[in-house]
Amino acid sequence: MRNLRKNIPSPKALIAFEAAARHQNFTAAAEELLITQAAVTYQIQKLEQGLGTALFTRSHRRIDLTWAGERLLSAVSHGLGHIAEAAYQIRKASEGRTLTVAANGAVSFYWLRERALNFQIENPGVGLRLMTGEQDDIENPGSGIDLAIRHGSGDWPGLEASLLFDEVAVPVCSPDYLARNGPFNQPADLKKARLLQLEPLSPDWITWEAWFSLRSVEYDRPQPPETVTFNSYPILLEAAIAGQGIALGGLNVIATVLKEGRLVQMDDQPHHTGLGYYLVQAVNKPRGEASVGFAKFLVASL
Known about the structure:
The chain is an alpha/beta fold. It folds into 3 domains: 4-94, Winged helix-like DNA-binding domain superfamily/Winged helix DNA-binding domain (Arc Repressor Mutant, subunit A, Orthogonal Bundle); 98-163 and 277-300, Periplasmic binding protein-like II (D-Maltodextrin-Binding Protein, domain 2), CATH 3.40.190; 166-275, D-Maltodextrin-Binding Protein, domain 2. 42% of the residues lie in helices and 20% in strands. The protein has helices spanning 4-7, 11-23, 26-33, 37-51, 67-95, 105-122, 175-181, 208-214, 233-241, 255-260, 289-300, and strands spanning 56-58, 63-65, 98-103, 127-132, 147-152, 159-173, 197-198, 229-230, 247-250, 264-265, 271-282. Strands 3, 4, 5, 6, 9, 10 and 11 form a 7-stranded mixed sheet that branches. It has a two-stranded antiparallel ribbon with strand order 1-2. Strand 1 and strand 2 form a beta hairpin. The radius of gyration is 29 Å and the shape is elongated. One of its GO terms (molecular function) is sequence-specific DNA binding. This is Gcv operon activator.
């Protein structure tokens, strides 16, 4: 590393070379860089002299890369791209005034939405963008996601994860459904109810089969056309709120709905799955003021 200055050509020459190679034209490169064609020619000649080999074969209307030129272009493009991306991320973090947060549909709708609005009221200078989806892409530097709330074990390479709350599964239904179809005094009593089915959102997602098994109750999942299966957790919970059946709900995710009385808990022994909901961020991404502030706000709201 001590010999970088000696071994790496002039940055001006490398930038001129990259533009000329990309356009295959010195004039177009000069126009992009806002310099003269003579200046581009000079930088490339200086680069070729320093490397001791030609980088282009020149004809009247175009230029083509030599083998050495192609090898250098690959390295220069890769290196300049990384520098540009790092500069963008650092600049964005230092500005720190716009924050993109990703979460799945249920967490966004039942848990995060109100907290996000309250944070923005207290921090009017910070813009919030909420992205909803069952899978986030925060590991990808180009995703634009600053923070994500992710369900799982908390072990994701390249991510720093802080537990927000444990996953606790419990059967829930509307007070009206319970009054019309109850009581349900034992776990086995739920087999006679209309159980709202959800397609597993991940391999470790708890299902009715798993819940009954934990209660030592045999259960055969009904098959179409005897049942309706949802692939959206919020829609399934809204069906339960509307009195259409019993759903497996995440106790911490729907705490507000339970407190408001729109759903009631039907089991006094909720199941702790061993998983949780974590606030995650990329390890190698700079922390902006807004990102740090929002993370503290969420933890304080628990």
